Structure prediction request, 81 residues.
Amino acid sequence: MIEVEQSAFPHEHFLFKVSVHRETIGNIWQNIGLALGLKAIFLVTTLTGVTTLWMAILADTGATVLVTANALRLLTYRSKK
Prediction:
C-alpha cells in the first residue's frame, strides 16, 4: 500500500536521499583523513623513537573507535531546511 506522504511529495524524498549521500561522502573523506593522518604521525614518531610500537598500536585502535563514532553520527542525520 502506498502512503499518502510518499505519493504526494516524491521529490522531497529524493532530495533527502541526495543530501544524505553528500553528507556520507563528506563523512567518508573525514574518516579517511583522520585514519591516515594518525597513522602517518605515529609511523614517523615510532621510526624516530619518540613513541613505542605499542603506543602506535593503541593509537590505531583509538583511531578505529573515532572513525566508527564519526560514522555513527549519520544515523541521526536530518535534512537541513
